[in-house]
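Lab channel / #folding
Pinned by the channel admin:
"Please post every new chain as: sequence first, then the structure tokens as a reply. Keep commentary short and put observations after the output so the thread stays searchable."

First post following the new format, from NK:
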Amino acid sequence: MNITINEEGNNITAVFDGRLDTVAAQQISETIDPLLQNADQNIILDCEKMPFISSSGLRIFLKIRKEVSAKGGKMYLKNICPDVMQVFKMTKLDDIFEMVD
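Reply from TO:
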């Protein structure tokens, strides 16, 4: 799993590339620090290159969302593949995350 973080104005985009499984979730915990530190801005998680997400990966997304909510920012999920969307729907998390194209 690779994460590339880009800052443009008031938007911070994190591009997730690879499977966000349990091992990857443990490895990226420090990588997401810039997202947590700038949670008062618009955080966009681009999932176009992420074909799989585990429950540990969902916890990473929830952690980011919690920090964004606490700091008054906004968080968006973008380009979610059908398999990953199915996980969000099964866990009912599609109701709490804002999805954009």
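NK: The radius of gyration is 12 Å.
TO: also worth noting, Residues 2-100 form a domain with the Transcription Regulator spoIIAA fold (CATH 3.30.750.24).
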